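--- STAGE predict ---
source: upstream dedup step, 1 unique chain passed
mode: sequence only
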Amino acid sequence: MWQTFYSTMLANGRWKLIPRGLGTTLLIALCAVLIGSILGCIFALFKISRNKILRNIATVYTTIIRGIPMATQLMIFYFVIFSPMGVSNAILVAIISFGINSGAYCTEIFRAGIQGVDAGQMEAGRSLGLSWSQTMAKIILPQAFRTILPTFTSEFIALIKETSVASFIAVIDLQKACDNIRNATYNAWIPLLSCAAIYLTLTLGLTQIFSIFEKRMARSDRS
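--- STAGE serialize ---
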């Protein structure tokens, strides 16, 4: 057992591929969730807007992005859109692609959270002399954020796991790093189980962190 593990993971420093791939995975996921959160907030406001054009733009965006598999979107962005423009940085393309994809899901998450806040909150803010945007920023969005936090956590965790398809455009992420070890050693079970264990540790760790954050927010509300 030890000899097999040594020849697969430790010999020739192959284990170094894993932290590098993990770093790429986390970079893509963190940047993408930031982009997705910004896009989600913007398009959620579009969806609840009284402007029909803005609502239609948001509807088209969420319908198209959520209706096409992530792997297909990734290759379209890389081979069809960015490559003809001379953009060959696969990690940058992956960040943009995953960010746009995440934005479509965040749009619906944020929309549901905003519409879940009692309509009287908006009326109360306006009666205090606040503008629509001030009421939204200071009253509605903070309440909506507390509501959507568990769903947003699930989206972030799902995004981390979805980055495993980034290897389709030659990004050396965690999954690709383990695949390279497997191809070099002809040993499948050690690299793949190592990859699965790391993804599981990431998701469980993030779930625990967000759970603690959610409980602290709940205590602050009661106090």
